[in-house]
Amino acid sequence: MVEELDAEALRPIPYPDELTQGFWDGVRAHRLCIQRCAKCRHWNHVPTITCYACASEDLAFEPVSGKATVHSWTALIDSPGPGFRNMLPLIVGIVELVEQPRLFLTTNLVNVDPERLKLGMPVEVTYEQLTEDCFLPQFQPVA
Amino acid sequence: MWEFRDKVSVAGVGYSKLSRRPAESLASLTRDAVDAALADAGLTRADLDGIATSPSMPRYGGLRGATEGVDVVTPWHLSEMLHVTEQINWTGSTNGMVTQSLIEGAMAIAAGVCKNVIVYRALHVPEGRYINFEGRYAVGTDQFVAPFGFSMPPAWAAVIMRRYFELYGYTRADFARFIADNRANTCLNPNGYWREKPMVREDYLNARMIADPMSILDCDIPVDGACALLLTSTERARDLRQPPALLSGFAASTFPHPTGTIMTLEDLWEGCEQTARRLWESSGLGPQDIDNAHLYDGFSIFVPIWLEGLGILPRGEGMAFLRDGHGALGGKLPINTGGGALGEGRLHGMSHMAEAVLQVTGRAGARQVPGAKRGVATISNGLVKATAFIFSGDS
Fold first, then answer.
1. B377 contacts B231 by C-beta, under 8 angstroms
2. pLDDT digits over B52-76, tens only?
C-alpha cells in the first residue's frame, strides 16, 4: 500500500503475527523477551517456527537481561522513508545480546554521541513509545 | 574437479544501451542485448534453443513492479518476442541471482538438452525513490528492521563497512583510490554508464553521504538495460566467430543470512570463503592462477571482502591492497576492469561475467589486461544465492 506522504507520516509500525506476538507483548510491558528452545536452550531471534540450532518446534519467549554490545552501526543521512525525515541523522545499531554469541538485534542507538560509539561498547535496552500500543526496544550506553 | 570443466563456453557477449529512463521499453532493450550476443557469436535467432534469467525487480519497501516488458522480461515473453517459441527446448527462471541461471544454462548444455543458450539480465529503474519504505506497517521479517529505519540496502552495507573500518583502522580516504581508478576503468568501457564522467579521489571524499560511511559513490548505479551471454559447448564455440571463454569452474553459496539482522561482516567473510572453497574445488585452480578479477560491487565494500574470502589476501588486508593501487589496471591483480556495477551500471553480476569473458578472450579493448588468461567473477555478497565463476582463455 502507498500512503500519502504527509508531515504526520509515521515510521513503519511493526505488525505482530502469530510467531512474533510474544516479542512485541514483552516490549509493550517493558520486558525484552526472546524466543528460546526448550529442547536445546538456544535463543532464536527473529522468532522462528523451528529452532535455528536443533529444529525443535518447542519454543517459548523468555526474558533476557537487556544487556548487549555494539556489533556495528551506521548513521542514516538519507531518509529510509517519509516517517524518518525529522529524525536524521538516525543511528541504526546492530547489537549482540550478552546471552549468546551472534544473537543479533537491529535497533536504534539512542542517547549517545555518534563520535563516541565503539565496537563492543556495552549498551542496554530502553523503550520508545511509537503509537498508543506499540513500543520499540532501543539501546543506549550503560550508565 | 567438475567433470565438465572447460567443456562449456561463453561464445557471445551482448549489451543494450545502458541509460536511465530511456524511451525504449525494457522488452526492446532486452531484445537488443540478445540479438547483439547472437551476432557477436556469429549466430542468429534460429540457432537459439535455451533461455534463462531471473526476472525480478529488486525493489525494497515499495511497490514491486512485475509488468511484463516494463519491469521484467521473463524467458517466455522473450521467446515470444524473438519468435522462437517452437524451438526453445528449455527455459530457466530462477528466484536466486541471475548468475544462477548461467550455472543452469551450462548444465543444460552439458546435459545435451540445449546447444545454444542465452542467459540475460534485464533491469529497469522504477519511478520515484528506489528504496523508500512506503508501507504504514512492517510485516514479516520487516517488522524487526523497518521500524528502526533499516530498510534500505545502502544502510545494510554501511554497517559492514563501519565494522571493517573500525576493526582495521581504515577510513574512506583508504578507499578513494580504488573508487577513482574504477571510474577511470569505466571511461575505457564503451558500455559504461559513467564513461564520460571522470572523477578524482576528492570527489569520493566529498560525495553525498547516504548511510555513513556509505556515500552515493559506494552504491552501484541503477540503469535501464540488459546484458546477454551466449553459452554453447566449447567444441561448437571453437567454430564460431569469437574465441571462446571456457567455463573452468563455478560455485553457488548456500551460506545462510544471520537472522536478527540483514548481514554481518563475519557472515560475509564466511559465505565468501564457502563460495571460494567450492570454486577452487570445481576448477582445480587457486588464487595464484587468476590474473583478472571481477568482484561484485553492488556496494563498494563487497570488493575487499571478496578479495579476502577468495583467499587472495588475508582478512583485513583487502582495503590496503586497493589503497595501494594493486587492483588498478597495470596493478598486481586488475579488478573490475570494465568499471563494475559502480561505473558500468547495475546488471546484477552479468557485466562482471561479461568483462571476465572479454578479458580472457583478449577483447577488452583499451582496458585489456595484457596476456589475461583466467578471470574470476563473483556475484552478490557471499551469502546464499551468491555465485562465482572462473573463465579461461582457450589454449
1. no
2. 999 887 765 556 678 899 889 999 9
Instruction: Name the pTM for this structure.
Output: 0.96
- Convert the pLDDT of each residue in B275-296 to its tens digit: 999 999 999 999 999 999 999 9
CB atoms within 10 A of CB B79: 20
> How many other C-beta atoms are found inside a 10 Å radius of the C-beta of residue A25?
13
At residue B145, φ and ψ (nearest 5 deg) are -130, -45
Per residue in B216-229, pLDDT (tens digit) is 999 999 999 999 99
Is the separation of the CB atoms in B354 and B313 below 8 Å? Answer: no
Rounded to two decimals, the ipTM of the complex is 0.95
Residue B254 sits at the chain A interface (C-beta within 8 Å): no
CA distance A73 to A81: 19
Does any CB of chain B come closer than 8 Å to the CB of residue A105? Answer: yes
Strand-by-strand arrangement of the B90-93 sheet: B90-93, B50-53, B117-123, B225-233, B8-15, B245-252, B387-393, B374-379, B292-295
Is B217 near chain A, with CB under 8 Å? no
The residues that bridge with A116 in the sheet, in sequence order, are none
For chain B, how many residues are written?
Answer: 395
